Task: structure prediction
Amino acid sequence: MVIENSNIYSIRFWVHWYFFALVLAPFVCFVDYYTLDQGWDKIYGATIILLGVLLLLARGSGNVVFRNYLIAGMILAVYYTTWDIALWQGTVERKGIFYEFLLHRTVHAVAVLFVVDNLLFSRKLIETLIRVMKGTIVVAAVFSLIQVVYDPFFFTPDIFEEIMSRYSWGTDVLHTRRLSVFGFSNLNDVGLSFLPMIALITGYEVKEKGRIPVLILLLGFFVAVVNNSRYIQLGFFIAAAPALYYQGRFLRNSLVALIGLIVMVLLMGLVLQAIGYDVSLYIEERLLDDSGGSRILAFEIFARFFPDNPYFGTGQHLTQEVIVALAGRSSQIHVGYLSHLYSYGIIGTFLGFVFWILIAVRLWKVAKKTGFWGSYYGYMVFLWANVTMVFYWVFTFGLALCYLFASYYDSKSIDGAKTEDTIK
Result:
């Protein structure tokens, strides 16, 4: 149990505001993009590191919870940084190790995990975040609709439109990736923040309200489908999995969910047809197309080049020899876990898996103990995503909210009503 005192109340106040600003990240980063242009890592990453350091100083190293995944995360961060220094000596020398530390995404993840493990959070904050997330889902669905019927790059960074144009996807209705409202915080946030939000809302509604948020799930499914990324479309069902724990009847709910899935898919087909999609063409040329060949190519390239540097990797996502071997057939080794093995070797990937799995185990234990499954399934989207895409960082605004909610429910299960009364 974490005991708070007056010395850290002010830190908790600012951390509460940090998470409130965090849930608004898509819109904060939009404003930043057209004004200061500092980016996600500086606005939210560096800030959480500073808050974590202040918390450690205020409480003292002997009075903090320091779980095993924090140690694993710091070791992984050192490993990544060692490669950065080896490859980009001029950049590191010019900007300094402190700059590298302050903007390191793995350190950001460690910092947010440390902060949520060592503070108590109010029910009022959690309820507020849920309301804002619901509002964001509604806005996201509206913006996705605009991107379908009007402009696929509405409310989207210019750099992303340039990326789509390189692959002739800018005008292809079936392949264009529609980012809804999430393009400015991170180009991968539809999958790695939006879907975790779906999981958190669903888990919260099932546990606290005894209901399944049908409207939120329908709107979320629409955003996922028109995004056109298949890992997101399939990841939606992982994010919706907390609904299976409704009233504690997992098996019965699984059968109901199967029927609900069929109804939802049919309904979505009607919606897509109404807004201009040729559904049969969408199934044939998008869902069943041969772009899975890029994953087969990933295995071929991996098998060819991985044996050259099996233990420590190359330190780079793409080396010149891999670029030449790809020959424009794919943009990368398009399987996250294979790409990580190639980039950081067996040793680096082992360290990465230790960090990622320890977080998953923590969230699973909280879910089993408290009955709140939102954080666990929200995080599982990350592990699923790297089966098909490449993204190694467990610090997005959606994943950070997963850690917060898990900490809240864990502390609530320990302290019960006493905690609630103390920190309202």
